[in-house]
Amino acid sequence: MGSIITLSLGRLEVDWGKNSIGRDHSLLFFPDDVKDVTYFYADDIKEKKPGYVRSLASIKIRLELLGYTLSACRKMYENDLEVSEYVDSTKIPYEVFARALKKVDVEKIRLPEDDPEWYDFGEWIVKNVLEDSEFIKSNL
Known about the structure:
By secondary structure, this protein is an alpha+beta fold.
């Protein structure tokens, strides 16, 4: 099965890796940030395990020191649009995408495992995110 490492905002994964292929996000946290975290698995299985927990606001400076500035995020987003096989002629400008993310309640977003039809994650994003009520209310 292998081990998985994720960096998440609620249930929304920002970054992930499997079997030792992934970024070590522990530099964003302090040793006393380890708390019980809900892990979500297939078939609606949830399990509590130790994990790092800290508010996004409290790690903002560390994220920027690691290179995740707003301008770097814009470049990553635009580069991904150019090479993604899942993006067709419907390309969302970065400004619109960033505005939507600022308004979305990440705890209410539908995820692929919530969908009765399982998709590859990229396909699922293209088919579902723009129809998600949390993104719609953000006035994309």
